[in-house]
């Protein structure tokens, strides 16, 4: 299935570790001049690429014979030439014969691969019959910028592409939902011809990461952020180092964070680095999920082993579980789901409340505003007024945890009815967010923001005025991107003790890691990883 040059590339192992897959990593080269392309090819090799895709349609000026000779000669890696027309999502908008002549010349000059679209594939392959070098592989590609068709339709498409005489087929479809990717995986596993299956858009990201698990011929990683040739393409650095792409194999377990939005999450950085350090065969991905019930119905195999659950799915996720931990049931929200190996059933937990409450208690220990509030309960929260901003899943977890520690809980939310509903559940009081600045101040008050107000990219937003923060002894923000939100910065300026959401994130992650892997959490490693990425 591999060209001889790419087979040789597989023998070069990074970081002293053997690969667990033969899926190639290809970097698209999309510079505007041949000189820039040559420079970028060298960068791609240095970053660990197996081959480069030379996008001829991006060149501002192009002398076929001279430039192709230079590109083939100077490239330190196997070459894949494409010359994408506008009707297939590329830049070229001129004579078709001229375009295909360039690809034929690239073949004659020593290209390892050429990529042609299905619409012209039969004509192109017929034109090189008897002239095709033994090492050359023809990739026949198809793009759908509207949707991902049914499994049957994709199967028929692959058959039609194979019938043109393709050595390799490539299908790229637009993912309107993350479950669309499953259809590509299904075709890839059963394909009789080497296949490249790509999901376009952020919802299709896992198609690029998990291609190694499901037998994809190659995947694409951009050279650096901003050099994107397809929507939501990861960088080669992220593929190889963040997702440990070389170590993904058929038996690798899939984990991920289910959220919307999700790209801000640092969970993949944390879990993948720790998985690698302890030798656990797992990969952890960003999962942009719109409909969580549909997600679990689609990804129901044992391969998909565990999930962190973020905003806005913490409450809806509870209904997707076969069993729920009693504490999580009491809270009414979960942030962790594991697929039990014994029977494949989904088991839901809540580790948010432990992570958040522990972080706040630690903050109070070091606070000059502690005021000796520890009681026989053993918690510094006992007797304090604990104000929670928000009424979602994370809010429920903090309210529950604070109440368990003996605090008096108040729920503040933009929608008063939702605040009242949560307050009644935990045994607290409720008010609208607009009324929060008018709450009568008292010693030792705690404020906990559990909403997304102030999260990247809207870092200038804050749920409460700076003036009102002076009434509190400690302010906690569940957001950790950025680590210091406007809320925390202004609270610190008022002399108030602050606790970052990063502390909650690390605290809840310990327990999730142990549930995911069955191994003890390496706590010092967790903290070191997060400090390196903060």
TrEMBL record:
Domain SDH C-terminal: start-end pairs: 501-530
Domain Shikimate dehydrogenase substrate binding N-terminal: 257-337
Record-annotated Quinate/shikimate 5-dehydrogenase/glutamyl-tRNA reductase domain positions: 381-452
One Pfam family, short name: Shikimate_DH
InterPro entries attached to this UniProt entry: Aldolase_TIM (IPR013785), Aminoacid_DH-like_N_sf (IPR046346), DHquinase_I (IPR001381), NAD(P)-bd_dom_sf (IPR036291), SDH_C (IPR041121), Shikimate_DH-bd_N (IPR013708), Shikimate_DH_fam (IPR022893), Shikm_DH/Glu-tRNA_Rdtase (IPR006151)
Molecular function (Gene Ontology), one example: 3-dehydroquinate dehydratase activity
GO biological process: chorismate biosynthetic process; shikimate metabolic process
Domain of life: Eukaryota
NCBIfam families noted in UniProt: aroD
Protein name: Bifunctional 3-dehydroquinate dehydratase/shikimate dehydrogenase, chloroplastic-like isoform X3
């Amino acid at each position: 299935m591999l060209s001889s040059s790419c087979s040789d590339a597989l023998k070069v192992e990074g970081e002293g570790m053997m690969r667990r897959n033969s899926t190639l990593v290809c970097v698209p080269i999309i510079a505007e001049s041949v000189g820039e392309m040559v420079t970028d090819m060298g960068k791609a090799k240095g970053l660990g690429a197996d081959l480069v895709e030379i996008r001829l349609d991006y060149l501002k000026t192009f002398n076929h014979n001279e430039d192709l000779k230079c590109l083939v000669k100077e490239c330190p890696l196997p070459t894949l030439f494409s010359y994408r027309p506008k009707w297939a999502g590329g830049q070229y908008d001129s004579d078709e014969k001229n375009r295909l002549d360039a690809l034929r010349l690239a073949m004659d000059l020593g290209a390892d691969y050429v990529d042609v679209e299905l619409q012209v594939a039969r004509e192109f392959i017929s034109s090189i019959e008897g002239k095709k070098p033994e090492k050359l592989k023809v990739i026949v590609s198809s793009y759908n910028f509207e949707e991902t068709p049914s499994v049957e339709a994709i199967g028929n498409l692959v058959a039609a592409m194979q019938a043109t005489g393709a050595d390799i087929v490539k299908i790229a479809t637009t993912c309107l939902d993350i479950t669309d990717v499953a259809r590509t995986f299904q075709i890839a596993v059963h394909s009789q011809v080497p296949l490249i299956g790509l999901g376009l858009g952020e919802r299709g990201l896992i198609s690029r990461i998990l291609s190694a698990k499901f037998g994809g011929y190659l995947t694409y990683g951009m050279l650096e952020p901003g050099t994107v040739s397809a929507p939501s393409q990861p960088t080669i650095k992220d593929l190889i180092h963040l997702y440990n792409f070389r170590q993904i194999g058929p038996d690798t377990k899939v984990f991920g964070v289910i959220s919307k939005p999700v790209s801000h999450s640092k969970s993949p950085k944390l879990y993948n680095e720790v998985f690698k350090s302890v030798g656990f065969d797992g990969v952890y991905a960003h999962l942009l999920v719109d409909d969580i019930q549909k997600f679990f119905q689609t990804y129901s195999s044992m391969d998909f082993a565990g999930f962190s659950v973020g905003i806005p799915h913490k409450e809806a996720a509870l209904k997707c579980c076969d069993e729920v931990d009693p504490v999580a049931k009491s809270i009414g929200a979960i942030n962790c789901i594991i697929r039990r190996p014994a029977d494949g059933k989904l088991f839901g937990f809540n580790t948010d409340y432990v992570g958040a409450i522990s972080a706040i208690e630690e903050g109070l220990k070091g606070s000059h505003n502690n005021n000796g509030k520890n009681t026989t309960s053993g918690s510094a929260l006992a007797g304090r007024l604990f104000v929670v901003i928000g009424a979602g899943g994370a809010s429920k977890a903090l309210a529950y945890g604070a109440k368990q520690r003996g605090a008096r809980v108040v729920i503040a939310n933009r929608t008063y009815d939702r605040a009242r509903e949560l307050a009644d559940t935990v045994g607290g009081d409720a008010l609208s967010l607009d009324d929060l600045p008018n709450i009568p101040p008292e010693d030792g008050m705690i404020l906990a923001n559990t909403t997304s107000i102030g999260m990247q990219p809207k870092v200038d937003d804050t749920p409460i005025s700076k003036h009102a923060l002076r009434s509190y002894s400690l302010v906690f923000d569940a957001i950790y991107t950025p680590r210091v939100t406007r809320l925390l910065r202004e609270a610190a300026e008022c002399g108030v003790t602050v606790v970052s959401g990063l502390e909650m994130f690390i605290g809840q992650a310990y327990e999730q890691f142990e549930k995911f892997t069955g191994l003890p959490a390496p706590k010092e490693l967790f903290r070191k990883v997060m400090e390196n990425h903060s």
